[in-house]
Amino acid sequence: MNNVLSDDVIAAISTPVGTGGIGIVRLSGAESLQVADRVFVSPSGKSVTSFPSHTIHYGHVLGGDGAVIDEVMLTVMRAPKTYTREDIVEINCHGGNVVVGMVLQAVIDAGARLADPGEFTQRAFVNGRIDLSQAEAVMDVIDAKTEAGVSYSLNQLSGGLSKKYQGIDDELLHLLTYIDAALDYPEYDVEEVTENELDQNIHHMIDEIDDLLQSAKVGKVVRDGIDTVILGEPNVGKSSLMNKLLHEEKALVTNIPGTTRDTIEDYLNIGGVPFHIIDTAGIRETDDVIEKMGVERAKQMVNQAELVLYIEDVSRETSNGDQKWMSLLEGKKVLHIYNKSDLIDEDDQASLKDHLSDNQIVLSVKSEEGLQTLKQKMVEMAVGSDSVVRKDDPIVSNVRHISLLKQVRQNLESALESMAMGMSVDIVAIDLKDALDNLRKITGQSLGDDIIDQIFANFCLGK
C-alpha cells in the first residue's frame, strides 16, 4: 500500500459479493468529485462538483461510450467530515454483480484506481481520524458473531480501548519527562520523582495492563467463538441436542445407529458467547469403512475442541465404550451430559442428580428439561466469572495487542528489577522508554510502514 500517502482517487465495491437490492461503489481522494462528475449525469444538469456536502442526488451513470449503465443515487461527502477525511463519493446502484462491476469499471476508466484491501480505513488512520487500535476494530465489527461481539468492537472503534492505552501512555510520558528533565538539566531546580513515587506508578500501570490482559480471555471468546464438540456413542442424542440448541433440523435424526457419518457444524449464540458447535459421528468400533472414517474425524475434532459435550444415554447401562472413549478427553474442558432422563423413573432421576459434580448435568433433550441449565453451564465453562464483563467495558481481543501488552508488562517488571538492584534512574528510564515504544506500537504511533501495510492487507475490499 505504498500509494496510501498519494492524492490519487481510489475506488472499490463496498457491498458484499452477490445479488442484492443495492450495490455501493465508493470513491475517496482529493479528486473524487471530479472523477464522479465524468460518469454521473443529473437530470438538473448540475455538476457533481457543485453539490453540497452530505447530500444525495438522483441520476444515471454513463459508460465511456455515453450509454447508460444504471439509474443511481449519488452521495457527496466533502472532507474533512468523512470516513477517510478526504472527499468521498458513494454511488448507490442496483445490486447485481454485473451492474456493480460495470459502475466500478466506469469510475476506474474515468481516472480512479482500484483500492487495495483496507485502503479506505488505512487512509482514515494515516489522516489521523482513527488510531491503529480503532482501525483494527472495523474488521472486528464486520466479523462479529454475536451482538455482544458487535458491542465490544464498537466500543473499541469509538475509542474506548484507545483511552485505556492513552492513560498508560500519559503516565509513562509523565515519569519519563521528570526523569529526563532531572538528568539533562541538573542545574535547574527540577522536582525529582522519588523512588517511592516511581514504584507506585509502575505498579499502578502493571495493574492496568493486567486488567486488560484479563479481559483478553473474554475477548478471544467473543472474537473467535468456542469450538464445541458434541461427542458420544451412537444414538445417545447428539444430533437431537444440536437440533434443539439451534432450533432447526440441522442434523438428520433416526433410530439407526451410525446415521451421522461426518461432522455437522454451525454457530450458536448463548448469552453473547458464540459457540462453534460440531456434531460428530457416534464413536464406536465398526467395520463400516465410511462410518470408521467418521469416527476418526470425530477424534480429530476432539483434539481441536475447547469444550466437549460428552453425552451418555442414562436409560441404558454404561458401556465399555463410554469408559474407553473418556480417555480421549484428558486435559479437555468436558461437560458430561446424562441424556434421556425422561426414560427413567423419578427416584432414579433424584438419585442421579444428588451425585452430580459441577461439570455434570441431567438432561432430557426430548422434553427440554435441563436444557437451560446446559446453556448456563456452557457459558460458565467457556468464560467463567469473566462473563460478568459489561458490554461497555473495553476488552482486548486482538492477538497483536495481547502480545505487545505482555511486552509492555515485561518492560515495567524490568524497571522494577533495576530499581530493586539499586541501579541509577537513567537505567530505569531505558525500560520505561521501551515500555512506551511497545505501547505505541498498539496504536500505531511507533510502528513501521511494512507492519501497518500487513495489518490493513487483512481487511476486505471497499473498507
UniProtKB/TrEMBL annotation:
Example GO biological process: tRNA methylation
Cofactor note: Binds 1 potassium ion per subunit.
Primary location group: cytoplasm
Positions of GTP binding: 235-240, 254-260, 279-282
Gene Ontology cellular component list: cytosol
Function, in words: Exhibits a very high intrinsic GTPase hydrolysis rate. Involved in the addition of a carboxymethylaminomethyl (cmnm) group at the wobble position (U34) of certain tRNAs, forming tRNA-cmnm(5)s(2)U34.
Name this protein carries in UniProt: tRNA modification GTPase MnmE
Organism: Candidatus Pseudoramibacter fermentans
Lineage of the species this protein comes from: Bacteria, Bacillati, Bacillota, Clostridia, Eubacteriales
Protein encoded by which gene: mnmE
